[in-house]
From TrEMBL:
PANTHER family: BCDNA.GH02901, LONG-CHAIN-FATTY-ACID--COA LIGASE. Residues 467-554 form the AMP-binding enzyme C-terminal domain. This is AMP-dependent synthetase/ligase domain-containing protein. It comes from the Eukaryota. Residues 39-417 form the AMP-dependent synthetase/ligase domain.
Length: 580
């Protein structure tokens, strides 16, 4: 079989002459439902404040006007591509900041708020960011990274003011202050219209992904790619012919924005008229209270939180009856966990989808005719997506046969910024090689079999083994190292470091047997101090004589993965759950 095409509705026209901001704020596509003006766009979780579309539209224009006036940025001031980093947890001003930047022609590079300064520096340098929008809780990390990246402190804007009056953040402006200042000339601001076809090449985001291997790379995503994926998702969701009370995703349902989803959550939910309850930081107790307080219907989650819903005693203390749909993403959802959650919440539709940054974003979504997805199923290909299943020898597999998933469609990213080698490996003639081993059955359902790529997923976050390996190799007690992961329902992947001790470390171990445990503990602490919370060695450290490699020197991770499973089962590594 050569190509597997998505079934269902044909795609309607996808405009290629507008930015994502214009598409969201000023354009009515046929796939978009009519939304009553009295329905809020977002709900601020902490205060219950309702934010409406007209308010967001006004604030976006005011911020865009002030960004140009104050920093002299935008297409009218700079012929080169301007990149702006947003380093912040979820916030009701996220859409305003993103769309204002898009309106002035800037590219947004969102950074994980859990990043260390070193990790943020890597992103700032690769993306060539010249301005940083920062939340106060990560301000000091941003300042350190800005100094190391050559970004002037005057080019830092705060998402909001400090809640603690004793904390000194200098003279930085906040987004709200800039909106207020820009309100006076917002009416004069007019977004530059794009020419036909221009949105296909004009970048909207530089989102960082480790791809199939290596350190995080900047995925170049155009405005057209994101508009196309919104149209694809909407076309698929609108094809649901179920009675209204049984539909999985409905305009007017209250959704929760607490975990992930620059496109699917922030953009599609708003596009579909689903008020978003915005939680800045996930805490399970607050999560349960918000579901009850705001009668939340639709919740995008990652598997570790679904496991908490199954096992945490506090769940029974709250009214969960409003939940209609839970959709899993960012990491594989096991059939066992799906079954457990369906027993705890028997009236809830539970399923998972599939996508990646490089496909910008969704490739498959849950079947609309099933309340509970088939075990291991990631749904069906959405309209406009075509797939190939490629065997290890490069030949094409058929249905019910495993192989690497290779996909194409209107939403694919352009490639990795300034990385021809990595782009050539992943993006080939319009097709994206996902690095995931999958199977598509006779009914078109996609099943994730295994990861061909080296990338680990810890609680839905990407962790590149090469990044941790490079970091550990800088430690004087490490001669060689290989990072592998083993699967766990709570964490997803549990990173384990196989380390060849340095000559000096071996001498100390030979002199004192207890030194081995000291070194292992020190290496775990070294990573804990230098890397984000989800990049920790939660599986511990195991010493090994040599790291297995093939003739060309490539790490044979599969061999060590098997060894890791064996020693994990034997209890030779700590199995304590680490809070991430």
């Amino acid at each position: 079989m050569s190509v597997i095409h998505s079934a269902g509705e044909p795609l309607p026209h996808i405009p290629d002459n507008m930015t994502l901001a214009h598409f969201m704020l000023n354009y009515r596509h046929p796939t978009r439902p009519a939304v009553p003006v009295e329905r809020p766009l977002m709900i601020e979780d902490a205060t219950g404040r309702l934010i409406y579309s007209e308010e967001t539209r006004h604030e976006t224009n005011a911020l865009a006007a002030e960004l140009i006036s104050r920093f002299h940025i935008g297409e009218q001031h700079c012929a080169c591509v301007l990149s702006v980093c947003i380093f912040s947890p979820n916030h009701v001003l996220w859409p305003v900041a993103v769309w204002a930047l898009h309106k002035i022609g800037a590219v947004v590079t969102p950074a994980n708020p859990a990043y260390t300064a070193e990790e943020l520096v890597h992103q700032l340098k690769i993306s060539r960011a010249t301005l940083i929008i920062v939340h106060p809780m990560v301000y000091h990390v941003a300042v350190t990274a800005a100094c190391e990246s050559g970004i002037a402190l005057q080019k830092i804007v705060l998402v909001e003011g400090a809640s603690d009056a004793k904390t000194d953040f200098g003279s930085h402006s906040t987004i709200s202050e800039m909106i207020q200042a820009g309100a006076g000339h917002a009416a004069r601001f007019v977004e530059r219209p794009l020419k036909p076809g221009e949105a296909r090449k004009k970048l909207a985001f530089l989102c960082f992904s480790s791809g199939t291997t290596g350190l995080p790379k900047a995925v170049a995503i155009s405005h057209y790619s994101l508009v196309a994926n919104l149209v694809q998702i909407a076309t698929y969701i609108n094809s649901d012919l179920s009675p209204w009370e049984k539909k999985q995703c409905r305009s007017g349902d209250v959704a929760l924005a607490d975990i992930y989803g620059l496109l699917f959550v922030m953009h599609y939910m708003l596009y579909n008229g689903m008020p978003l309850v915005v939680m800045p930081k996930f805490e399970f107790a607050s999560f349960l209270k918000s579901i009850e307080r705001y009668r939340i219907n639709y919740i995008p989650l990652v598997p570790p939180i679904m496991l908490l819903l199954c096992k945490h005693p506090d769940v029974k203390k709250h009214n969960m009856s409003s939940i209609r749909t839970i959709v899993s993403g960012a990491a594989p959802l096991s059939g066992e966990l799906t079954q457990q959650l369906s027993e705890v919440l028997p009236n809830v539709s539970i399923a998972q989808g599939y996508g990646m940054t490089e496909t910008a974003v969704a490739v498959s979504l849950p079947r609309l005719d099933r309340k509970i997805g088939a075990p291991g199923s990631a749904g069906v290909l959405i309209p406009g997506v075509s797939a190939r299943i490629v065997r290890p020898d490069g030949s094409l597999a058929g249905r019910n046969e495993p192989g690497q998933l290779v996909v194409t469609g209107p939403a694919m990213a352009q490639g990795y910024l300034n990385d021809e080698k990595a782009t050539g490996e992943t993006f080939v003639d319009g097709w994206v090689y996902t690095g995931d081993e999958v199977m598509i059955n006779d009914t078109g359902e996609l099943f994730i079999v295994d990861r061909i790529k080296e990338l680990l997923k810890v609680k839905g976050f990407q962790v590149a083994p090469a990044e941790l390996e490079g970091f550990l190799l800088d430690h004087p007690d490490v001669s060689d190292v290989c990072i592998v992961g083993i699967q766990d329902d709570y964490n997803g992947d549990i990173p384990i470091a196989f380390v060849v001790p340095s000559a000096n470390a071996l001498l100390r171990i030979q002199a004192d047997a207890v030194e081995a445990d000291r070194i292992k503990h020190a290496l775990v602490e070294y990573v804990a101090a230098g890397k984000a919370h989800y990049k920790q060695l939660t599986g511990g450290v195991a010493f090994i004589d040599t790291i297995p490699r093939n003739a060309s020197g490539k790490l044979l991770r599969r061999l060590l993965r098997d060894t890791a499973r064996s020693i994990w089962r034997s209890g030779k590594l700590s199995k304590e759950k680490t809070k991430l």
